[in-house]
Amino acid sequence: MARSLGSRAVSPAFEAEALASLDSLYRTALRLTRSPVDAEDLVQETFLKAFRAADSFRPGTNLRAWLFTILHNTARNRIRDRARDTVAVDSEIVERAAERPPAGGIVETPESLLLRDTMAPELQAAIDALPPAFREAVWLRDVEEFSYAEIAEMLSIPIGTVMSRISRGRHLLFEHLNRLRPVNA
Amino acid sequence: MPNHSDRCLAIDPLVTPYVDGHLESGDRRTVDEHLQRCAPCASRVAAERAVRDLIHERRATLARSCAPDALHGRCAELARLNDDARPTSRADVFGAARRLQPTEGARGHQPGGAARGFSQASWRTRLAPLALAASLTLLVGAAFLYQLTESSSRVLAAELAADHVKCFALNSMLHTHDSPTAVESAMVSGFGWRMQLPDTGSVAGLELVGSRPCLYGEGKIAHIMYRHNGEPVSLFMLPRRVRTQEVVDVLGHEAAIWCAGDRTFVLLARKPRQEVDRLVAAVQASLR
Fold first, then answer.
1. Which of B50, B87, B126, B202 is positioned for an S-S bond with A111, CB 3.0–4.6 A?
2. Chain B window 180-199: which residues touch A at a Cβ cutoff of 8 Å?
3. Does B9 touch chain A (CB under 8 A)?
């Protein structure tokens, strides 16, 4: 797409559309890193790579999902760079946990009523407390509203794994928030 | 798993798309019928739905935080950085990428040569069936390869500035600290470069942090990290003479670039230019 605009490598339209996703990339980076400094650094590196690889973006496909893919890969490479072995073990545990269906019969009262009074800061803290793989899956699906297929491509995992991570993440959130409710709620 | 029949296990993969309203009517009916008979699964579905609905209700607030203005500014600047230095054709990039795939690194790359026998039509054909992630890796690899050869000093400085920030963020978490002897032997074992590090005593407040092979450029760039009065300073060394001497202001950092012997050096810090010049002079004196 860029070549049709002469010598300019990043077209104004590409640049504008990419920068329009900056806030949501930053929010997701915050969830991934839980550190504003690291999140800024991660987003900056994402844009550096995106603009340098702008030629490889196929017009007509989803630019926002493409940027999130770069963000995720960059974050994953950083984590691997920090502790290769830790990541390998961690992801194994995550996959095993995701395969195990959560226990049934968690509550006796209508579940939505239990969570009705949960405010955003409390919910945000509960999301941040999730293990990284579940946190990322729930965030991308329920807040950033990507499809299962888009998330699967971003994270390079099968769609079934995406769904099981979302499911497990939601149940962990439910259990976490439920524990925070007063006994007489 | 207690109390879970085979039927419950069969339903399990359908639960999340059921909650999200993405099931075909046949599957949806199957789940509905099962939930009417199975209280544990009905409870599990209700819990998942409750959380989903809660996040959706609070979504506007959760998604309210915005990136700092400074980050918007820096990312917009990154787009403009690419305008002044691109390869002469796309084929150059893909040719370079292709040559990167086996074991060849940046060494031996001749501008223009990569395009031979590798037309734009052929790389389009090659790329078409690739998944997004695969083509992305190829291109990003190529982008960082040609920083060593063809890109402008400004683009090189921007990429090194990003690496500088990343390495120091890592360092402040890991608290690694190498001795001058360890860094000098890492330069010999990792890069085959015998060198004497600048005597930190010659510059007040200069302290050696450590070294690492730069993540970009297939590990061909050595990165020696210092702190000067507590602030990060990076000295990068590239394996060939590819730059003329200049100081570039990029992403809030000053990057001083010069050549000595068969190498290119880049000293990078978020400091006033006079201070960077002073640090460069100290490094150059020690490398003579």
1. B50
2. none
3. yes
CB proximity A3 to B under 8 Å: yes
| Coil vs helix vs strand at B264 | strand
- Looking at the structure, tell me whether residues A116 and A183 fall in a common domain: yes
| Architecture, CATH, for domain B153-287 | 2-Layer Sandwich (3.30)
- Per-residue pLDDT tens listing for chain A (185 residues): 333 333 446 788 888 999 999 999 999 999 998 888 889 888 988 998 898 888 888 887 889 999 999 999 988 887 766 654 343 444 545 555 555 544 444 444 466 676 777 888 899 999 999 999 999 999 999 999 999 999 999 999 999 999 999 999 999 999 998 887 665 44
| A109, closest residue in chain B (CA to CA) | B43
What is the distance between the alpha carbons of residues B34 and B54, in angstroms, rounded to a whole number? Answer: 25
Query: Considering the domain boundaries, does residue A69 fall inside one?
Result: yes
Residue with tokens 């395969």: A99
User: Quick check: ipTM above 0.90?
Assistant: no
Residues of B in contact with A26 (CB under 8 A): 65-67, 71
A105 and A185 in a single domain? The answer is yes
Distance CA A179, CA B16 (A): 23
Q: Which residues on B lie below 8 Å from A100 (Cβ)?
A: 1
Same domain, A131 and A79: no
Rounded to the nearest 5°, which phi and psi values hold at B78? -60, -35
Q: Provide the residue type at B265 as one letter.
A: F
Q: How far away is chain A from the Cα of B115, in angstroms, using its nearest Cα?
A: 16
Residue B59: closest CA among chain A residues belongs to which residue? A143
Structural domain total, chain A: 2
